[in-house]
């Protein structure tokens, strides 16, 4: 009997355990569940499973009945492992026998991702050996100490190493799922999902986790207006002085406040936004690369290629060719 009802969709299996965080399970279902094709057809089917079917305790005051077992994993295209607070990843460097047996069911070509401390499961399975990975910043030192073969980066929102991905604490699961949707189906689909969920459509994986930073007082001036203005003027050669002037701040104050609010510098943020704009134009239009470089604010095709290669590891032309080819294949 097939575990997934729709063979034409991308199959996502969520493996939950006792002590699961309800929000993390909800993130996966809500975001993947909203992704639609141009004709309005769902693009993903999400099925929740557990090691032994039955009531699964959550981090709240209720349980959730899960009637699917680990056999679901054998039919998955993507497997996501959220965190568990009570069955927290074993202190030993090996998996429990039931968890080990479950993970062995996952197809070799499947994509596997973790949210928060779910990274400990991937590490214990050897899937993160020699790879860059992240987890919640409170658990990063423990992950590194327990699994020295893993290159733990405690400062990013998520990592993407081909078919193995990790994300930081809870809400960064949103960024991870949007990233996977964007990688599968492009910026337009991911942005529509973000809009429906009322979240930011794109935060780069390299953006810093917000750790040990106090929430700004409500009366404190912010850089929100400058960021909104910058997004409307990406085609222009923007400077820090111009951005600071939009908020009536000195360049020094603006620079400090921008980093406090966003987690990266204003110039890094601008580059990220310009790359995202270029990606959108490459995916959705037939504009020549020179024109896209101008529209995204890189000025020249050479500058666009340099930044694109540094950020994504491919040229703009290769990115367009690959993505448009996938669109044709899916049509």
UniProtKB/TrEMBL annotation:
Keyword field contains Transcription: yes
Listed CDD domains: GATase1_AraC_1
Domain HTH araC/xylS-type, residue spans: 224-322
Gene3D superfamilies in alphabetical order: 3.40.50.880, Homeodomain-like (1.10.10.60)
Pfam families referenced in this protein's UniProt entry, alphabetically: DJ-1_PfpI (PF01965), HTH_18 (PF12833)
Keywords attached to this entry: DNA-binding, Transcription, Transcription regulation
UniProt-listed PANTHER family: ARAC-FAMILY TRANSCRIPTIONAL REGULATOR, HTH-TYPE TRANSCRIPTIONAL REGULATOR RV1931C
Protein name according to UniProt: Helix-turn-helix domain-containing protein
Source organism: Amycolatopsis nalaikhensis
Source taxonomy: Bacteria, Bacillati, Actinomycetota, Actinomycetes, Pseudonocardiales
């Amino acid at each position: 009997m097939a575990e997934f009802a729709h063979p034409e969709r991308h199959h996502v299996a969520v493996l939950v355990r006792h002590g699961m965080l309800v929000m993390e399970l909800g993130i996966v279902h809500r975001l993947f569940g909203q992704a639609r094709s141009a004709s309005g057809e769902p693009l993903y089917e999400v099925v929740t499973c557990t090691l032994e079917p039955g009531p699964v305790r959550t981090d709240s005051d209720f349980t959730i009945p899960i009637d699917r077992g680990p056999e679901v994993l054998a039919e998955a295209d993507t497997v996501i492992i959220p965190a568990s607070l009570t069955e927290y990843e074993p202190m030993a460097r090996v998996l429990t026998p039931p968890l080990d047996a479950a993970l062995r069911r996952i197809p070799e070509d499947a994509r596997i991702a973790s949210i928060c401390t779910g990274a400990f499961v991937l590490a214990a399975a050897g899937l993160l050996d020699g790879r860059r990975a992240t987890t919640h910043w409170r658990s990063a030192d423990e992950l590194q100490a327990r699994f020295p073969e893993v290159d733990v980066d405690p400062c990013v929102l998520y990592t993407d190493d081909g078919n193995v991905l990790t994300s930081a604490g809870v809400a960064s699961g949103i960024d991870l799922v949007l990233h996977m949707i964007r990688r599968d189906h492009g910026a337009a689909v991911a942005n529509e999902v973000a809009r429906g969920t009322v979240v930011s459509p794109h935060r780069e994986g390299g953006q810093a986790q917000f750790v040990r930073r106090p929430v700004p007082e409500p009366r404190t001036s912010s850089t929100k207006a400058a960021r909104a203005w910058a997004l409307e003027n990406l085609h222009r050669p923007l400077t820090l002085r111009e951005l600071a002037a939009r908020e009536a701040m000195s360049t020094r104050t603006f620079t400090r406040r921008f980093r406090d609010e966003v987690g990266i510098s204003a110039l890094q943020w601008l580059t990220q936004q310009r790359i995202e704009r270029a990606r959108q134009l490459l995916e959705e239009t037939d504009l020549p690369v020179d024109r896209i470089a101008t529209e995204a604010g890189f000025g020249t095709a050479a500058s666009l290629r340099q930044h694109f290669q540094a950020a994504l590891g491919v040229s703009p032309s290769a990115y367009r060719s690959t993505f448009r080819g996938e669109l044709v294949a899916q049509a």
